[in-house]
Amino acid sequence: MKLEKIKLxxxxxxxxxxxxxxxxxxxxxxxxxxxxxxxxxxAVRWVMGESSAKHLRGGNxxxxxxxxxxxxxxxxxxxxxxxxxxxxxxxxxxxxxxxNIAIKRQVSRDGKSVYQFNGxxxxxxxxxxLFLGTGLGARSYAIIEQGTISRLVESKPDxxxxxxxxxxxxxxxxxxxxxxxxxxxxxxxxxxRLDDVRDEVEKQLKNLHKQSEKAKKxxxxxxxxxxxxxxxxxxxxxxxxxxxxxxxxKLQAAASTHNDLxxxxxQLQEALERSREQHKNHTLxxxxxxxxxxxxxxxxxxxxxxxxxxxxxxxxxxxxxxxLQVQSQQLQETLTEDVMQLEEQKVLQEETEEAVFVxxxxxxEAQAVQQDAQAQRLAWQQEWEAYKNQTASYxxxxxxxxxxxxxxxxxxxxxxxxxxxxxxxxxxxxEQSLHDEIEQLDQDINAIEAxxxQLQLSMDAEQISxxxxxxxxxxxxxxxxxxRSEFQTIKGKVTSLELLQQHAxxxxxxxxxxxxxxxxxxxxxxxxxFIEVECGWDNAVETVLGSYLEAVCxxxxxxxxxxxxxxxxxxxxxxxxxxxxQESSRNGLVRLLDKIKTPWNLQGLLSSIYCADNxxxxxxxxxxxxxxxxxxxxxxxxxxxxxxxVIGETDAKTGVLQREKDLRxxxxxxxxxxxxxxxxxxxLESAETFLKTAxxxxxxxxxxxxxxxxxxxxxxAEFSAHSARTEEQQQRLQQVNAEMDDINTQLxxxxxxxxxxxxxxxxxxxxxxxxxxxxxxLEQKNDLLQxxxxxxxxxxxxxxxQHHALQAKIASLKSSVVLTEKQIxxxxxxxxxxxERINVLNSKIQQTSEPMGDKREELLDLLExxxxxxxxxSTNREQHGELEEKITQYAEQFxxxxxxxxxxxELLDNIRFEQQESRIRQQTVTEQLQEFNVNAEDVIKTISxxxxxxxxxxxxxxxxxxxxxxxxxxxxAIDEYQTQKERMDFLNTQNSDLIAALAxxxxxxxxxxxxxxxxxxxxxxxxxxxxxxxxxxxxxGGRAYLSLTDDDLLESGVNIIAQPPGxxxxxxxxxxxxxxxxxxxxxxxxxxxxxxxxxxLLDEVDAPLDEANVRRFSEMVKEMSENVxxxxxxxxxxxxxxxxxxxxxxxxxxxxxxxxxxxxxxAVKMAES
Length: 1169
Prior knowledge:
The protein is of the alpha/beta class. Helices cover 69% and strands 9% of the residues. It has 19 helices and 23 strands. The strands form six sheets. It has a six-stranded antiparallel beta sheet. The chain has a six-stranded mixed beta sheet with strand order 8-20-21-3-22-23. Strand 22 (1141-1149) and strand 23 form a beta hairpin.
């Protein structure tokens, strides 16, 4: 891998794009002081990843950007590019496949730094990985500046070891070892976090296991209950089905019988109808004969009645006339008697009314006497009630006080006994014993509590700190997880969109990509990446531009014209980037170009296309446009003169502009999230460290607190025991004193109450004796009043009875008078009516006495005709009776059949009702089975032969009770338990994987250490031999060697021991400047001989050497150039003479460096020619 060229632009003094061609292995950079030669060395160091501005001779990284001069303005960015020839494939690893390798670094004044590998953005780490083990790097031994010689020779043993490790290729092993150690540390942290998560999940698993077992039991019981319910429903369905079949058979039999009876009834009914028809005809015949018979009979009866009536009327009139005459005489006698009786009744009524008036006066006198007696009796009753109340009160009072005195005497006796016992107990309780011990224990407890309180405050503070840290760690974990999830999500979206965008822009066409690579256009952006479209006009712009969105943006197509012929089977659009020129619409219409923001000029593609809000407006605008102009709507409908174009949105290449806009936003969000993830990881690591320290401190405090707690518990228990005994004694003493005081008070009160009760008792007894005389007087007065009251009541009752009798007699007499008067009037009327009747009867007797001969002859003729007709009628009646008997038999048979038919019909209705009921129940069971999505017949097939409805019903009830006993059920616990168990298994697997990974990583570190020791030892020996060989060559004698400061090859430093000719062994620090330079050169050349770097940079290394040493140095460089490419800066002519190429640096313009390259061989040829 050889360096071909160095490209600089805006880097320090190289403001213009400058290329330093490298031809041959010896290139000398010459020029006056201050012209910018060393800036080339800084550029190489910078592009290979140098991150320290101090090593680039600046204050900050922005100092590498050209900062302006007297004639030039400052630029905004600096870039350096190194181009290597890797045709031999000497680059390590994946980089061996590239024939050319170009690494580029660009930085802007806003601090944004970009690395590129062959035109593709990459990381700084990718650049450093490329040079690992090659001897190249930002601070490798292959770059030797003016101060590097002294730094290399005077470097500490550990610093010098780094150069040897770089030569040995151990650097990449150390880098990998560091990465492995970081991974081990992260793995251990993850393992600790994993252990915490496993502990938490294990706790959840225990709880979920119980809940899941309970839920499984519930599920099993529920499944059993469901099966039994299904089988029970199926058995019920089968039972209803069998019942329905049986009822159907019964229904068929009953229907058959009913039909037979119905047919018999119908036949009998027809016979009965025929008989009834005959009976009806015969009845009509008889009725006609009977009508004639009745007519004769009626006529005969009429004649007989007429004759008889005349005879009876004559006799009756005669008898009635005689009777009325007798009756008239009797009524006249009765009338006379009634008149006399009426006069007697009126006299008696007047006498009775006078007697009633006298009786009224006697009743009023008796009532006055009775009221006086009742008033006296009421007054006595009140006196008697007052006497009884007073007597009862005195007696009750005396009895109560007597019982109270007896009770108080008994109570006083008991109180005296109790008082004696309490006095003895009081003397025992007054003794003091435990107060000294309690005071001592109290002092000890206070001291321990003070210490424990102080410790508790510290623990609380630590606990709060730990809680806050844990909460912070949890939040940071959640935040970090959220950031990572969002980052991965956005990364996936970016990848998907990039793939879609690459396909949409044709970047996945292999042949076209090869052609673009060959033309150095593969990294050029497409036109769609520079376009921003106003919202809503994406479809319109995509429709118009179409495949031009895939156009590769170039500065000029002049150089590519002759290469376009090679694209015979590929489509390609090229767009020349020209600055946009502002041009307004000439006809007042809105151009599609106005809806687009882009840094380039799109006039050639969109100049004659206008915008319309809808198709109707577009159609109207088209009519006003020229034939080469067109109009388009936001939906993508494109219209022109005589044509319309519509593109569907199903095309895979649609949405390119929107995807590009989404990609920009997602990439910005991705960078933001990546920075947030890094910050969150650092905060989380810091918080976990603080948490671990706080937990250790808390454990220490907890141990001390436990010790104090144990001692405090012992003291407190002892203090409590003593205090309890003392408190019990004090409480009992207080109780005894209180009881004694209560007893004395009670005795005094009882004595006073007893004396008072005795006095009240004596007063009550004296009052009772005084009331006995009053009782005797009241009883005598009661007897007198009772006798007077009875006499007055008897007298009043007699008067009232006499008065009532007289009033009843008056009422009776009045009624008799009225009746007698009515009787007299009625008799007079009857006498008048009798006389009139007698006159009428006498007239009737004269009329009925005339003869009846004609009627008697007519009667005899009618009697003969009636006899003949009666004989014929008798014969017909016998025949009619036979028909009626036959009809009666038919009717009885019809009634029997009708009853049978009704019974069968009722039976059919009952059977149908039962069948319908069975069918409804079966349908209900079927609906219940359908709720379980099962078929009854399928369930019946699975039922055992021993199954019965009763047993299954009991089992269903038992299962239901068992389910109820389980209580509340968390049915999601099974899935949660399974999920947590899978998570636990996954965590256990992760734990095992982490442990295995730790073992693998530790084993890898061991292997890396072994490999590093071996390589370092081999390299150290070779470099030491090379130094011992080259040191005498450069110094013309003497010797030098390397020594280790320690036996550990991984950590041992390296010292340089030098002995120039004629001097003793000494440390390299004691040498002169020139000796140090030659020693450093000898060391570097020894390293190069072992592991040649692709090139070596020397910055005025020969400056401190004299001419003889410069010649030896030049010979050594020339000899080494056969394997190593040298790029050196020198002011020495001897050193310049060995160069194959001279690169001159001038500063013709103040502050601006320029290159003037001279090929020595070409110059020699030109001079010779």
